[in-house]
Amino acid sequence: MAEDSVLAFALSVVFLLSVILIWFMIAYQLILTLAGFAHYRSSMKEKLLVDRQTFDYPTVSILIPARNEEKVIRQTVESMLALEYPPHKLDILVVDDGSTDATPDIVREFTKSDPRVRVYTIPKDEGGRGKSHGLNLGLKQTNAEVIAIYDADNTPEPSALRYLVAQLLLDASLGAVLGKFRTVNKARNMLTRFINIETLSFQSILQAGRWKLFKVATLPGTNFVVWRSLLEKLGGWDEAAITEDSELSIRIYMEDYRIKYIPYSVTWEQEPETWSVWIRQRTRWVRGNNYVATKFLKEIPSFKRKFLAFELLYLLSLYYVFLVAIVSSDVLFILGMFDLLVIVLPGPYTAVWVLALFLFLLEILLALSYDREDTIANIFLTILMYFSYCQFWIYIVGKAIYLDVIKKEKRTWDKTIRFDRNPLLAKGAGTPPSPTPTR
Question: How many angstroms separate the CA atoms of 229 and 316, rounded?
Answer without folding.
Answer: 27
